[in-house]
Design brief:
Rossmann fold, binds nicotinamide-adenine-dinucleotide, about 15% strand, 2 domains, 6-stranded mixed beta sheet, 6-stranded parallel beta sheet, alpha/beta
Length: about 375
Amino acid sequence: MVNFEILEKSGHEQVIFCSNKESGLKAIIAIHDTTLGPAIGGTRMLNYDNEEAALNDVLRLSRGMTYKAAAAGLNFGGGKAVIIGDSSTQKNELLFRTFGKFVDGLAGRYITAEDVGTDVRDMEYVRMETKYVTGISKALGGSGDPSPVTAYGVYIGMKACAKEKWGNDSLRGRKIAVQGAGAVGRYLCEHLYNEGAEIYVSDINDVKIKSVLETIKAHVVSPEEIYETDAEIFAPTALGSVINDKTIEKFKFEIIAGGANNQLEDELKHGKILLDKGILYAPDYVINAGGLINVANELEGYRQDRAMKQAEGIYEILNKIFAISKEENVPTNIASNKLVELRLQRVGGISKIFSGAKGITRR
Ligand code: NAD
């Protein structure tokens, strides 16, 4: 179970266990680092095998949010919450309003949003108890679906990769394999198509493929074939751990730039193999930060044009990462961690503890 040694080791500032008999709520909120501002990160609802598994997950995910927010240049720290329970049978108003009260009690040190197992409706219940929640529906003045901004950020990031690899950021005529035709994949395909790229797309769901083909032209490949297409760019935009021992040996890609989270099965090992193979990898948490940029924007009065503009910053951030990677001969995923840690160190002197309460209005 959690103790000070664990917190010190993982760099966490605070972990809060939330329990309430009436609603049945069992939740853990982890605040990893508030150097840059209040901790932001979604609430995951899962039927964890045990409390230890829930704790490990929330510690891992909240740490990841610190890196994601910092890399994106946002003035937010990293946090995450998990609710232990079955999201298909145990969700109700009382549960999420109770959770909202706990979030409110943190007075802005932690700002929540939807994640796996929770949705916009759940966050609207949370909103009834606290203003420290984002990712509310457009109808209620929120930012709504983040996928268009995520996809735009991935597209812009892909152009930065092209510039780095080929000296020109045009994707016209480039062969690009997109894994996953879901919310992000679909918008991404549209950007690529509009620029004249040749698209190879795969999905396990034929309905998704059909729907994409209504607006663009693309070669459809099977989920297994996608790893060995002749495409120059691979965009994993479906699920995590797709860069692994089995897939990596099939790659003829020159660039990997996609929207999925946790693309490398083993960060150290597979990041290094990509470097050695000369495949330029856009670190996932950097290139897919558009979704976070989108919800962070909601806290300042949402405007999609502003969120899109901010997502364009991913181009320059990747350039900085590529420069560190070349200078220090380290994989790009290590270079991006270094960039984040440098930013945290530089800003760290200002006010590490209790910066959250006023942080919600900070830019
Ligand atoms: P989604 O569920 O809408 O789409 C995922 C698609 O992948 C689905 O169509 C699914 O059928 C398909 N898929 C599943 N397994 C597959 C396989 N083996 N091969 C090919 N296709 C497969 O999800 P999304 O919102 O588009 O998100 C896609 C990825 O991007 C996820 O990893 C998500 O965590 C990440 N991400 C999303 C956002 C966002 O704004 N939605 C932000 C950041 C990161």
